[in-house]
Design a protein that fits this description.
This protein is mostly beta strands and 136 residues long. The protein has one domain. The chain is built from 1 helix and 6 strands, in the order βαβββββ. A 4-stranded antiparallel beta sheet has the order 2-4-6-5. Bound molecules: zinc ion (ZN).
Length: 136
């Protein structure tokens, strides 16, 4: 399995930028677990048909915060610090590569290189995608 960070539709990037401008809080792009040998599914979203983005509300905290809301751990990137973040909301965006069809076989070479995938990846949650609750 290969952990990849999917690329986003343009309006999702705008929503993330807007969130940062108004709150100074980061947004976290959920990484997906991809089997590179299995090309039956979209290689951007790993067949989910959508991309999940978590918008942070507070953080970072050194200790796990007491809250009923979702939390995530982030290693920090020089702009947003290292620690736990409380998530205000999680949104899903239709995958821009397969348009939500998820089963479209696409060439990995046509996807953007990692340098273009500039949003945060909370590494500790890489494998928790299935448990993610989507709240608008
Ligand atoms: Zn896709």
């Amino acid at each position: 399995m290969t952990i990849i960070t999917p690329y986003l539709p343009k309006f999702a990037e705008l929503a993330i930028n807007e969130h940062y401008k108004s709150t100074k809080m980061p947004a976290f792009l959920k990484a997906v677990d991809l089997n590179p040998n299995y090309t039956g599914y979209c290689q951007n979203c790993a067949g989910l048909g959508m991309i999940f983005v978590q918008f942070a509300e507070k953080g970072p905290f050194h200790e796990i915060p007491m809250t009923r809301k979702a939390i995530t751990y982030f290693d920090g990137d020089g702009i947003s610090g290292k620690g736990w973040y409380i998530i205000e909301k999680t949104e899903n965006f239709t995958c821009p590569h397969c348009k939500g069809e998820s089963r479209v076989a696409v060439e990995p070479a046509k996807l953007p290189i990692d340098g273009d995938r500039k949003y945060h990846k909370p590494q500790s949650l890489d494998r928790e995608l299935g448990r993610l609750k989507v709240t608008a």
